[in-house]
Design brief:
heterodimer; A: 2-enoyl-CoA Hydratase, Chain A, domain 1; 7 strands; B: about 550 residues; 8-stranded mixed β-sheet; about 30% helix
Chain lengths: ~300, ~550
């Protein structure tokens, strides 16, 4: 056999590896300090979905999510990464329970941050009720962990985006980092088109999808706190930055978040399209925002992006 | 006394009948159906322009709406049966008989209509073959064509998607036929004259631009590691040893992977300038990185590709462009170029049988042939030598004296042993044969005949069929790279081992390729956005390919 072409250091690999394309395990390997990931309930334990067999559907030994702990810049973190390539990263019973358990452990310890690498279309339809319950449990677990002083950070840049219940959980996090390819919403493009018609939302108009739900728009709206370029290294740096930025959580912060959202609705409620919102925000040539390279966009976002540092 | 100018008189009568609806040559869109009723006679041969890309869509709707007492039983002679209206014509009885070449999106419905006897089928052709028949026995009485703009005299600008238009017009206008063009705009002066006014009899202004399908855009994000591996095998196992410079690529993901590996993997192998320099190829966006890296010297195109206009305009050293700067494509010339001036065709298929015959037909779909059989066929009339052509010829026939030995075109089939939805690529019997039996066709619709195929590439390796001396060797060479498909598992292990010793079958390790190196990081572009970046912002992909 010929030798592999690439013998490269982990940091170099993290810089050259697309977060969007990487598997859940590759993302965690390169995001955390090299070799520090310790998985809970790993695939060797074969905790598979109890429901998929009924539908004659393939299972995965980790049920599409990796949970564990590791180190980030030397400090301990809990991590969860959804595998978007298994059933679109959808939440099922086991999948959800693994994340709930991780968050509850973080709540008990109180000081170790949690990173959730979302990559999901929402609830797994074959496990409807169990999946919906899992979403509710996770949302509660996030809020309880935050109340106990845990920083819960969402990283969004996978191919399946962060939709359905995933969008709700992301909304509960202390802070989010998102890349251009990352999409965050509750109802997905096809769902909106099916329910409200193609005139309301053309799911095949992908430029429309991305400027409505994509990472750049979420960052400019203040829903995401940091914009990452699409490399694992950039997400690693974003996670470290956010851990340093997040302040204490309490009623004041929730009131501030409520105020931020009310203000957003007041300012942009009449806008028909994301480009209108960016224009109202004072972006010159707003229609060129989707074309901006990451560095230029980050400069723009830090100038006008609505910071939510005291909200959430 | 015998008259020898009857057809001309008939043509003049048709034009006179239509002239009442026209101002000069220009007819308003709402009058299009009345124009067709005036000009077309029952039983006429009509070419309704449409191929795998652009469509005379306004004129097809207008034709569908004709009064059946005036226009009926037409014989459609056209490249593409692509729009639903093309088949509605037969459902309504406007048309009865059909000779065509390609039916991509209508392949299932056309099969049902053929079974149901709704269509009287002449034959399914290749593009070049149908064009040839336009000049011999299928000359259109009326051609309904599409152009970007016209001036008041009827000079036409067909734009980057010129495609079939010059050929259709040549056959019709110079044999007493009537040419009717739909145009997006009527302008004072056309940017360039693609079709001179004296070949155009009527011009209809369309209210919206004619439809063009972005058929040749492959999103790099969808290329799999399996496809990358087959692409690496092709580059190192075929392009490099034969030194193939003049190439036509199919439209599949494996060939897109090859295009995206040239500036990375190909560069590392030191192949720049030695392979893949001249193409008969549509403006594939996936080729942008190779062009920008200086690999590609020249490309002639069958048609254009949506979003590539500005890039082409800025790279006229590479593409064929008019004095106005935009691409000039021409399907007939490019097909001829692919047949006679290319040393290799490489493309994907749906089914390959034990002798290497391949087909994209399944029992419920008749997609037609398009251009692949011309590209993927040895040109027996070729006389000019080239290194890959001579080398392939020598492999196939080592015993003949060199001055009398024909060269061979490299015809390569590339794919994974299990294709889309895990359907095996290799079969004992092609669905095409079953279809021919069901439809009573004299010929099974075989896309590329086994005796034209020189190599098959899968993730299991490269089979060089030129080196096979018997039908049995050929079968085992194919089984030997068919992996875990039923065909692959039916191999004779000792014979396959022998073929490998002789270099007929070469595994990845025989070629010096580690399958673990087949990584998406090897692609020069991993997304459509990367292609936009490579193009310096000149490539403007259609919205359906964006993820930003």
């Amino acid at each position: 056999m010929t030798a592999p072409l690439q013998h490269v250091a982990p940091a170099e690999r993290a810089r050259s590896t697309s977060f969007n394309e990487a598997s859940a395990r590759t993302r965690l390997d390169l995001l955390l300090d090299a070799g520090s990931l310790v998985e809970f309930i790993g695939p060797e334990q074969r905790e598979v979905s109890p429901h998929l067999e009924i539908f004659d559907l393939p299972e995965q030994f980790d049920d599409g999510i990796v949970v564990g702990h590791g180190r980030l810049g030397g400090a301990p973190v809990f991590v969860a990464a959804q595998e978007g390539r298994f059933m679109g990263g959808a939440f099922g019973e086991v999948h959800g329970a693994k994340l709930t358990g991780l968050l509850r452990a973080a709540r008990e310890i109180g000081s170790i941050p949690v990173l959730i690498l979302f990559d999901t279309g929402g609830v797994r339809l074959q496990e409807a009720n169990a999946g919906e319950l899992a979403i509710a449990e996770i949302m509660r677990a996030v809020m309880e962990a935050r109340s106990a002083g845990v920083k819960v950070i969402g990283l969004i840049g996978g191919r399946s985006g962060c939709y359905g219940g995933g969008g709700l959980i992301a909304g509960c996090c202390s802070a989010l980092a998102v890349s251009e390819a990352g999409r965050v919403a509750v109802s997905g493009p096809e769902v909106i088109e099916t329910n409200r018609g193609v005139e309301e939302f053309d799911s095949r108009d992908r430029a429309l999808v991305w400027r409505t739900m994509g990472g750049k728009h979420r960052r400019l709206l203040g829903a995401a706190d940091v914009f990452a370029d699409d490399t694992v290294q950039d997400f690693r740096e974003a996670a470290r930055e956010l851990i340093g930025l997040i302040g204490p959580f309490g009623l004041d912060r929730l009131r501030a978040e409520q105020g931020r959202l009310a203000d957003r609705l007041r300012r942009f409620g009449a806008c028909q399209d994301a480009v209108d919102i960016w224009t109202v925000e004072g972006v010159a040539d707003a229609e060129t925002v989707p074309e901006l390279p990451a560095d230029q966009f980050i400069a723009l976002a830090s100038r006008i992006g609505r910071s939510s540092r005291d909200a959430r | 006394m015998t008259s020898w100018r009857n057809n001309r008189a008939a043509r003049d009568a048709r034009i006179a009948a239509g002239a009442g609806l026209a101002h000069g040559k220009v007819v308003e869109a709402p009058d299009a159906t009345r124009l067709l009723e005036a000009v077309i006679r029952p039983g006429d041969r009509v070419c309704l322009e449409g191929d795998n890309q652009k469509q005379a869509d306004l004129l097809s709707r207008a034709l569908l709406a004709v009064d059946l007492s005036k226009v009926n039983d037409l014989h459609m002679v056209q490249s593409g049966v692509v729009l639903p209206e093309h088949l509605d014509l037969f459902d309504r009885g406007v048309a009865k008989r059909l000779d065509y070449a390609y039916s991509g999106p209508q392949s299932a419905r056309i099969a049902r209509m053929l079974f149901g006897g709704k269509i009287e089928l002449g034959a399914v052709h290749t593009y070049l073959e149908l064009f040839a028949r336009y000049f011999i026995d299928l000359t259109p009485h009326v051609a309904l064509i599409a152009a970007v703009s016209a001036d008041r005299d009827g000079n036409l600008y067909t734009g980057p998607n010129t495609e079939d238009t010059p050929t259709v017009v040549e056959a019709t206008a110079f044999k007493d036929g009537v040419v009717i063009a739909q145009v997006n705009d009527i302008v004072e002066t056309v940017p360039r004259v693609d079709i001179p006014a004296d070949r155009v009899h009527f011009v209809v202004k369309s209210d919206k631009p004619f439809f063009v399908e972005p058929l040749f855009t492959r999103d790099p994000a969808a290329i799999t590691e399996g496809q990358i591996l087959t692409a690496m095998l092709a580059i190192k196992g075929i392009y490099a040893p034969y030194g193939v410079q003049r190439i036509n690529h199919g439209i599949g993901f494996s060939t897109a992977a090859i295009e995206l590996l040239l500036p990375t993997f190909g560069e590392r192998l030191g192949l720049k300038g030695r392979i893949a320099t001249h193409f008969a190829l549509n403006p594939h966006p996936a080729l942008i990185p190779a062009i920008e890296s200086g690999w590609v010297r020249q490309i002639h195109s069958f048609g254009s590709e949506v979003g590539m206009d500005e890039y082409i305009r800025a790279r006229s050293d590479v593409y064929f462009t008019g004095p106005d700067g935009s691409l000039r494509s021409n399907r007939a010339f490019c097909q001829t170029a692919g047949l006679y001036a290319c040393d290799m065709f490489i493309g994907s298929t749906l089914q390959i049988d034990l002798q290497g015959n391949s087909s994209t037909v399944t029992t419920s779909r008749i997609a037609g042939f398009g251009g692949a059989p011309n590209m993927g066929a040895d040109a027996r009339g070729r006389r000019h030598p080239s290194e890959p052509w001579l080398k392939a010829g020598a492999e196939a026939d080592p015993d003949s004296p060199a001055p009398l030995r024909r060269g061979r075109k490299l015809v390569v089939q590339i794919g994974e042993t299990f294709g889309d939805k895990n359907v095996p690529l290799f079969v004992e019997k092609l669905d095409a044969i079953e279809l021919a039996e069901k439809l009573n066709l004299e010929l099974a619709p075989v896309m590329i005949y086994g005796d034209d195929v020189t190599h098959i590439v899968t993730e299991e390796g490269v089979a060089n069929l030129l080196l096979c001396r018997t039908a049995q060797e050929r079968e085992q060479a194919i089984r030997g790279i068919a992996g875990y498909t039923d065909v692959g598992r039916g191999r004779d292990r000792s014979m396959v081992a022998l073929l490998r010793e002789r270099g007929v079958i070469r595994r990845p390790e025989d070629i010096g390729i580690n399958p673990l190196d087949a990584d998406r990081n090897m692609l020069a572009a991993r997304s459509i956005k990367d292609l936009v970046r490579w193009s310096g912002g000149l490539y403007a992909p259609p919205s359906k390919f964006r993820n930003w």
